[in-house]
Amino acid sequence: MKLIKKGAEADIYLASWNGQTSILKIRKKKEYRIDSLDQRIRTLRTIREARLISESKSFGITTPIVYFVDERKCMIYLQLIHGKLVKDLPPKKIITISTEIGKLIGTLHKNGIMHGDLTTSNFILSKNRLVILDFGLAQKTDKIDDYAIDLRLFKEVLNSAHVQIMEDAWSSFVNGYRIMLGTHVTEKVVSQVSIIESRGRYANVI
Ligand SMILES: Nc1ncnc2c1ncn2[C@@H]1O[C@H](COP(=O)(O)OP(=O)(O)O)[C@@H](O)[C@H]1O
Ligand SMILES: [Mg+2]
C-alpha cells in the first residue's frame, strides 16, 4: 500500500481491491477528540461519503465507484481515476472546464446535495470526462444559503489559487450553473454569495 496523500481528515493510499488497483481513503483518529465521539464522527462521515457518492451517480454525476466500505475502520475503497487534477490544468483549460464544474454543481444542487468542499483539487479531468471527488463534507440540503456556501468556496479558491483567470473562470462557472438551474435560482444563489461576502468583509473590519 502506497500513501499518496496525507490530508487533514483522511489519508489516501494506492491499494489493491480484489486484485485491482484502487484508492483507499482512511479517516484518521483525531487525538484531540474524546474516543467514542471521534469514532462516531469518522464512521458517520465515512458512511455519508459513500452514500452521497452513490446517490450522485444515480442522477448522472461522474464519481468514483465505491468498491467497499468498512464502517468500523472508517475506510472506503474507491475506483482509481486516472487523469489530471483540475488544479494542475493550464489556466485556459481551467476557464473552459469551469463551465462543466458549474453544470455538475448545478446538478448536485438541483437534486438537493451540497458538496461542501469545492476546490479544484476535488475534480479530475479523465479522458475528457470530469470526475468529482471527496464527498466527505457533502450533505443533503434544500437551502439556498448552503448552495451559496458551495459557490462562495469555489470563488475563493479561484481567487487564491487561480487569481489570473479568476474573473473568466467564475463567469464560466456561473454560466454552467445557470444551464442546470435557470436564471431565477442562479440569481438568487449568486446574490446570496454577495451577502455572505459582505458579511465576511464586515467581520474583518471589526
Ligand atoms: N478515486 C480517486 N482517484 C484518483 N485520485 C484520487 C481519488 N480519490 C482521491 N484522490 C486523490 O487524493 C486527493 C485527496 O482525496 P480527497 O478524497 O479529496 O481527500 P481529502 O478529504 O483529504 O481532501 C485528491 O485531491 C486526489 O488527488
Ligand atoms: Mg479533497
From TrEMBL:
Pfam families: Pkinase (PF00069). One of its GO terms (biological process) is tRNA processing. The keyword RNA-binding does not apply. InterPro entries: Bud32, Kinase-like_dom_sf, Prot_kinase_dom, Tyr_kinase_AS. SUPFAM superfamilies: Protein kinase-like (PK-like). GO terms for cellular component: cytosol; EKC/KEOPS complex. Its EC number is 2.7.11.1. It catalyses: L-seryl-[protein] + ATP = O-phospho-L-seryl-[protein] + ADP + H(+); L-threonyl-[protein] + ATP = O-phospho-L-threonyl-[protein] + ADP + H(+). The keyword Transferase applies. GO terms for molecular function: ATP binding; protein serine/threonine kinase activity. It is an enzyme of class 2 (transferase). Residues 1-206 form the Protein kinase domain. Keywords: ATP-binding, Kinase, Nucleotide-binding, Serine/threonine-protein kinase, Transferase, tRNA processing. Belongs to the protein kinase superfamily. BUD32 family. PANTHER family: EKC_KEOPS COMPLEX SUBUNIT TP53RK (PTHR12209:SF0), NON-SPECIFIC SERINE/THREONINE PROTEIN KINASE (PTHR12209). Component of the KEOPS complex that consists of Kae1, Bud32, Cgi121 and Pcc1; the whole complex dimerizes. This is non-specific serine/threonine protein kinase. It comes from Nitrosotalea sinensis.
